[in-house]
Specification:
By secondary structure, this protein is an all-alpha fold. The protein has one domain. It is about 85% helix and about 0% strand. It contains five helices and no strands. α1 (about 1-40) packs antiparallel against α2 (about 50-75). The radius of gyration is 18 Å and the shape is elongated. The protein starts with a helix and ends in a 5-residue tail after the last helix. The model has no long low-confidence stretch (mean pLDDT about 85).
Length: about 120
């Protein structure tokens, strides 16, 4: 089970990198569609949904990285459970979240966590 917990922590790290890559692709597509010329013509208020989505995505990525760190260091078991529940809302996080919750409820894994 110890190896499986390390694998899940690594899975969350890959999940964060995948999310960063997707955001990078989306920003590149938007830059191609809008172009530099149109940026001066479009008011800033039209970009607010994109900016808001970007901030939410960054918060999401930070939460994934925090959970990966907690699982790697074996600290904050309760916080790890809460974060895995929150992150299980999203498609790839569902599988990781279910496995994480199942692992964190096992007695032998609970003894490895410091808090």
């Amino acid at each position: 089970m110890d190896r499986l917990l390390k694998l899940v922590g690594f899975g969350y790290l890959i999940y964060a990198l995948f999310a960063i890559y997707i955001i990078y692709i989306i920003i590149g597509k938007i830059d191609i569609i809008i172009g530099e010329k149109a940026f001066n013509e479009i008011p800033l208020s039209n970009y607010l949904p994109l900016i808001t989505l970007g901030i939410i995505a960054l918060i999401f990525i930070v939460l994934i990285l925090i959970l990966s760190y907690f699982l790697h260091k074996r600290i904050h078991r309760t916080t790890s459970r809460v974060l895995s529940i929150i992150l299980s809302i999203f498609p790839i996080g569902t599988l990781l979240g279910i496995v994480t919750i199942m692992l964190l409820t096992r007695k032998d894994i609970q003894e490895q966590f410091t808090s």
